[in-house]
Protein backbone atom coordinates (compact mmCIF):
# COMPACT_ATOMS: atom_id res chain seq x y z
CA UNK A 1 0.00 0.00 0.00
CA UNK A 2 1.35 3.44 -0.78
CA UNK A 3 2.18 5.60 2.20
CA UNK A 4 2.82 2.60 4.39
CA UNK A 5 6.26 2.40 5.96
CA UNK A 6 8.50 -0.19 4.34
CA UNK A 7 8.32 -3.63 5.86
CA UNK A 8 11.23 -4.61 8.01
CA UNK A 9 12.18 -7.67 9.95
CA UNK A 10 12.20 -7.49 13.70
CA UNK A 11 15.64 -7.69 15.26
CA UNK A 12 16.50 -10.67 17.44
CA UNK A 13 16.03 -8.49 20.53
CA UNK A 14 12.62 -7.30 19.33
CA UNK A 15 11.50 -10.89 18.62
CA UNK A 16 12.57 -11.88 22.14
CA UNK A 17 10.73 -8.91 23.64
CA UNK A 18 7.59 -9.71 21.63
CA UNK A 19 7.62 -13.34 22.79
CA UNK A 20 8.13 -12.21 26.37
CA UNK A 21 5.28 -9.67 26.23
CA UNK A 22 3.00 -12.18 24.48
CA UNK A 23 3.70 -14.65 27.29
CA UNK A 24 2.84 -12.05 29.89
CA UNK A 25 -0.31 -11.18 27.97
CA UNK A 26 -1.47 -14.79 28.19
CA UNK A 27 -1.20 -14.53 31.97
CA UNK A 28 -2.59 -11.00 32.32
CA UNK A 29 -4.66 -10.34 29.18
CA UNK A 30 -6.12 -7.05 30.40
CA UNK A 31 -2.97 -5.37 31.74
CA UNK A 32 -3.28 -1.99 30.04
CA UNK A 33 0.38 -0.97 30.29
CA UNK A 34 1.50 -4.34 28.97
CA UNK A 35 -0.93 -4.05 26.05
CA UNK A 36 0.28 -0.54 25.24
CA UNK A 37 3.90 -1.74 25.17
CA UNK A 38 3.02 -4.77 23.03
CA UNK A 39 0.93 -2.71 20.60
CA UNK A 40 3.72 -0.16 20.19
CA UNK A 41 6.27 -2.91 19.59
CA UNK A 42 4.08 -4.62 16.99
CA UNK A 43 3.80 -1.32 15.13
CA UNK A 44 7.53 -0.62 15.37
CA UNK A 45 8.36 -3.95 13.73
CA UNK A 46 5.68 -3.61 11.05
CA UNK A 47 3.18 -6.13 12.44
CA UNK A 48 0.35 -3.66 11.87
CA UNK A 49 -2.54 -6.13 12.02
CA UNK A 50 -1.40 -7.42 15.41
CA UNK A 51 -0.96 -3.82 16.57
CA UNK A 52 -4.50 -3.04 15.40
CA UNK A 53 -5.89 -6.01 17.32
CA UNK A 54 -4.20 -4.79 20.50
CA UNK A 55 -5.33 -1.19 19.92
CA UNK A 56 -8.94 -2.30 19.40
CA UNK A 57 -8.77 -4.28 22.65
CA UNK A 58 -7.33 -1.28 24.47
CA UNK A 59 -10.06 1.04 23.17
CA UNK A 60 -12.60 -1.27 24.78
CA UNK A 61 -10.66 -1.39 28.04
CA UNK A 62 -9.91 2.36 28.11
CA UNK A 63 -12.83 4.06 26.35
CA UNK A 64 -11.94 7.52 27.71
CA UNK A 65 -8.18 7.40 27.02
CA UNK A 66 -7.48 9.82 24.16
CA UNK A 67 -3.99 8.39 23.61
CA UNK A 68 -5.39 4.90 23.12
CA UNK A 69 -7.81 6.22 20.48
CA UNK A 70 -5.01 8.16 18.78
CA UNK A 71 -2.91 4.99 18.55
CA UNK A 72 -5.91 3.10 17.18
CA UNK A 73 -6.24 5.80 14.51
CA UNK A 74 -2.57 5.35 13.63
CA UNK A 75 -2.99 1.58 13.29
CA UNK A 76 -6.02 2.03 11.05
CA UNK A 77 -4.13 4.54 8.92
CA UNK A 78 -1.19 2.17 8.50
CA UNK A 79 -3.57 -0.52 7.27
CA UNK A 80 -5.32 1.80 4.81
CA UNK A 81 -8.61 1.93 6.70
CA UNK A 82 -8.72 5.68 6.21
CA UNK A 83 -12.39 6.48 6.89
CA UNK A 84 -12.27 4.58 10.17
CA UNK A 85 -8.89 6.15 10.99
CA UNK A 86 -10.35 9.65 10.57
CA UNK A 87 -13.38 8.78 12.69
CA UNK A 88 -11.14 7.35 15.40
CA UNK A 89 -8.78 10.34 15.35
CA UNK A 90 -11.77 12.69 15.63
CA UNK A 91 -12.84 10.73 18.69
CA UNK A 92 -9.33 11.04 20.17
CA UNK A 93 -9.50 14.82 19.68
CA UNK A 94 -12.98 14.93 21.22
CA UNK A 95 -11.50 13.15 24.25
CA UNK A 96 -8.79 15.79 24.56
CA UNK A 97 -5.89 14.59 22.44
CA UNK A 98 -4.62 17.49 20.40
CA UNK A 99 -1.17 18.04 18.97
CA UNK A 100 -1.53 19.54 15.52
CA UNK A 101 2.19 19.30 14.75
CA UNK A 102 2.22 15.64 15.69
CA UNK A 103 -0.73 15.01 13.36
CA UNK A 104 1.29 16.59 10.58
CA UNK A 105 4.53 14.71 11.30
CA UNK A 106 3.60 11.27 12.65
CA UNK A 107 4.77 8.81 9.97
CA UNK A 108 1.99 6.39 10.93
CA UNK A 109 -0.53 8.96 9.69
CA UNK A 110 1.06 9.44 6.25
CA UNK A 111 -1.66 7.38 4.52
CA UNK A 112 -4.55 9.29 6.11
CA UNK A 113 -2.97 12.71 5.49
CA UNK A 114 -3.71 12.20 1.77
CA UNK A 115 -7.44 11.78 2.52
CA UNK A 116 -9.59 14.87 1.89
CA UNK A 117 -11.09 14.57 5.40
CA UNK A 118 -7.72 15.15 7.03
CA UNK A 119 -7.99 18.95 6.66
CA UNK A 120 -11.23 18.94 8.66
CA UNK A 121 -9.46 16.89 11.31
CA UNK A 122 -6.72 19.51 11.56
CA UNK A 123 -9.34 22.24 12.02
CA UNK A 124 -10.47 20.46 15.20
CA UNK A 125 -6.97 20.89 16.62
CA UNK A 126 -5.95 24.54 16.95
CA UNK A 127 -2.44 25.59 16.02
Biggest sheet character:
none
N-C termini distance: 30 Å
Count of distinct strands: 0
The total tally of domains equals: 1
CATH class: Mainly Alpha
Radius of gyration of CA atoms, rounded to a whole number: 15 Å
- Choose one word for the global shape: globular
Could you characterize the architecture of this molecule?
By secondary structure, the chain is mostly helical. The chain has a single domain (12-123), classed as Serine Threonine Protein Phosphatase 5, Tetratricopeptide repeat (Alpha Horseshoe). 67% of the residues lie in helices and 0% in strands. It has 8 helices and no strands. The protein has helices at 12-27, 32-44, 48-61, 66-78, 82-94, 100-105, 110-113, 118-123. α3 runs antiparallel to α4 (66-78). The longest helix has 16 residues, at 12-27.
Features:
globular, 127 residues, Serine Threonine Protein Phosphatase 5, Tetratricopeptide repeat
Amino acid sequence: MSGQPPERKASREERIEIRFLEGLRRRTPDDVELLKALGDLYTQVGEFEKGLEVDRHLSGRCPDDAGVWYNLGCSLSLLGQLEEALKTLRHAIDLGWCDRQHLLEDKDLAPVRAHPGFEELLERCPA
